[in-house]
Amino acid sequence: MRTARRDTSAPKPLLARLLTGLAALIGLVVVGALFPGGAVAQPPGARTADARPAGARAADAAGLHISGGRLLEGNGNDFVMRGVNHAHTWYPGETRSLADVKALGANSVRVVLSDGYRWSENSPEDVAAVIGQCKANRLICVLEVHDTTGYGEDAAAGTLDHAADYWIGLKDVLAGQEDYVVVNIGNEPWGNTDPAGWTEPTVAAVEKLRAAGLRHTIMVDAPNWGQDWQGVMRANARTVYDADPTGNLIFSIHMYSVFDTAQEITDYLNAFVDAELPILIGEFGGPADQYGDPDEDTMMATAEQLGLGYLAWSWSGNTDPVLDLAIDFDPNRLSDWGDRVFHGADGIAQTSKEATVYGGGAPDTQAPTAPGAPAATAVTDTSVTLGWSAATDDTAVTGYDVVRVVDGAESVVAAPTTTTATVTGLTADTAYTFAVRARDAAGNRSARSATVVVTTDEGGGTPVGSCSVGYRVVGEWPGGFQGEIAVRNTGNTAITPWTLAFAFADGQSITHMWGGTAAQNAGAVRVTPASYTATIPAGGTVTLGFTARKGATNTAPTAFSLDGASCATA
Questions:
Q1: How far apart are alpha carbons 328 and 305 in whole angstroms?
Q2: Which residues span the membrane (predicted)?
Q3: Model pTM?
Q4: Which of 457, 424, 416, 432 shows the shortest CA–CA distance to 560?
Q5: Contact 199, 240 (CB under 8 A)
Q6: Is 283 annotated in the active site?
Q7: Which residue in 283, 296, 304, 354 is the catalytic one?
Q8: Catalytic annotation present for 484
């Protein structure tokens, strides 16, 4: 990807560009040697003979599968991906995105996940929910592990073997989803350092997944940060493909500024098509950067001419916002890049066709029923805890929006997945009107519940405690960060046990904590100690560490309380 971490997109230096041009010429000879009998490029949807035994081919065709170098559905229909990438693991709260992408015409989405090596692991429950959202929105779902990005050059990257173990751990979630899901083993799983090392671990990961019984179509990304400018995937594609006993494997090339001429693009894609080896453009960008100006027009036109899939990077949330297709996840605010991908020549709106597995019926447009009226179960001078009866839906309710109502206008103040939420940051002795809406996997929202009026306590000021708290961010990455909290006892007697409270303002959510146990409801966090931090001696300090998810903004908490008394901030 050329986004959430700009440094992961490798430039092609002048010498490398000259070598690449020479390699393109040599490659025409190499392809003939590596792919003997390579056919002339077939028109989109053309079928050629599959030399494997008929029994093996029939067993493979349980869902999406490869035949004659083409990606087919279980019924044999040719399927050409037209979609986008979506950074789910860094923005898990953007549950409406898949519905928005579908509404703009996409038939596929590539979803960023984490196997836990570099970012917070997406749980089986979360992955099952993502698959459910794809199906509810009639999208084919490409699931990818992003932690492998730039292995061999980026010291933080994980291995393909680790990613393979993650997929095997999801076997029960993935089983039966072969019609809907493609497994992309690992994103850009090798940098520019010794990219020849890519082939062996790629083969091993493919073999490991098949030995474990996964039958899905497998997608394999190229080295050189996905752009294969040294031709390693191109030269070794047959070896990797033959390592899959099912033959259900597709290659993914990522096209950014390395691919800035029409010749480079057409040569690369035609080499695979001529060899009847399946390929798609798994990521691509159009806007120019300091490395060059990608030729997105040729990418999209050639993909359409050859009947190859493409998945644009990326829906929203890039730290390099020039590559946001939608600004702030708003489908009504497409960027110039987004308008090009969705509405331009050879774009998604012109060329996308929905997978036939969805039967040609209408998308899920049925909203959940309205939840029950919320009731206040705890009221303080600055917060209220609300609870309500659950909504129902024809598929599944995936979450709720708690809204504050002022003069008929609504603002979301909490977005829980359960039927309770604590709203914080309120003003003492003030009346507030709240209501709740339900959401389903397709992004449909229910009618608003009945409202409840809650008046906060008068308060009297929060007592000041004998404590001070220091908060700092240890490290950040797209969609997440690591934090540290130091709690100091400034009094003359020990504090034991204790409860620390604070609130996040930007939707951050703690995923793991050491030194204590965190309970979070919306932005409000309450921490109870571990056994070894249960006592804070007079003048002493205990330190808590945690990892958390975040969005584009990561404002530090401004107020902390210990056992209900406010602490100074250090």
A1: 33
A2: none
A3: 0.62
A4: 424
A5: yes
A6: yes
A7: 283
A8: no
